[in-house]
TrEMBL record:
Belongs to the NrdR family. The lineage of its organism: Bacteria, Bacillati, Bacillota, Clostridia, Eubacteriales. NCBIfam families: transcriptional regulator NrdR. PANTHER family: TRANSCRIPTIONAL REPRESSOR NRDR. Residues 49-139 form the ATP-cone domain. This is Transcriptional repressor NrdR. InterPro entries: ATP-cone_dom, NrdR-like_N, RNR_NrdR-like. It comes from Sulfobacillus thermosulfidooxidans. Negatively regulates transcription of bacterial ribonucleotide reductase nrd genes and operons by binding to NrdR-boxes. HAMAP family: NrdR. Its cofactor is Zn(2+). The keyword Transport does not apply. GO terms for molecular function: ATP binding; DNA binding; zinc ion binding. Keywords: ATP-binding, DNA-binding, Metal-binding, Nucleotide-binding, Repressor, Transcription, Transcription regulation, Zinc, Zinc-finger. The gene is nrdR. One of its GO terms (biological process) is negative regulation of DNA-templated transcription.
């Protein structure tokens, strides 16, 4: 493993431990030349998943897009990065466990919203407003009604 500081080609592993629910191995390393320490992650290469966008385009699944959307929705909200990481992990796990090859962006958005609803309702409405492309106050009102009266919307 190359050192990110001096670019030397060799390092020694100081510590290894599982990360992301055992899906990765986190390794603490030390460069054999400059003696700086750094962290690397090792994970199994996963089967690629294609996301089908609303306009029919296909692009490869990118977990960081989910995390970016969550960070934007939770800006200035009392939600920690570790909680957002857990949401992104849960969404990715759901996608990988139940879909081989292709998944719609609509379904991914619904997964994210279902997770976010229980964490922070303001962030949920923010995410929903972008995801569902609200064009007027009526869209917000309908989404708030779902939050305020979930029983009515589950039955109907």
């Amino acid at each position: 493993m190359r050192c990110p500081i001096c670019n030397y080609h060799d390092s020694k592993v100081l510590d290894s431990r599982p990360a992301r629910e055992g899906r990765e191995i986190r390794r603490r390393r030390e460069c054999l030349q400059c003696h700086q320490r750094f962290t690397s992650y090792e994970r199994v290469e996963e089967i690629p998943i294609w996301v089908i966008k609303k306009d029919g385009r296909r692009e490869s699944f990118d977990r960081t897009k989910i995390l970016r959307g969550l960070l934007t929705a939770c800006e200035k909200r009392p939600v920690g990065l570790s909680e957002l990481e857990m949401i992104a992990d849960a969404v990715e796990r759901e996608i990988r466990d139940h879909h081989f090859g292709e998944v719609s962006s609509r379904w991914i958005g619904e997964l994210v919203m279902n997770q976010l609803k229980d964490v922070d309702q303001v962030a949920y409405v923010r995410f929903a407003s972008v995801y569902r492309q609200f064009t007027d106050i009526e869209g917000f009102r309908q989404e708030l009604e779902k939050l305020l009266h979930p029983q009515v919307h589950q039955e109907g």
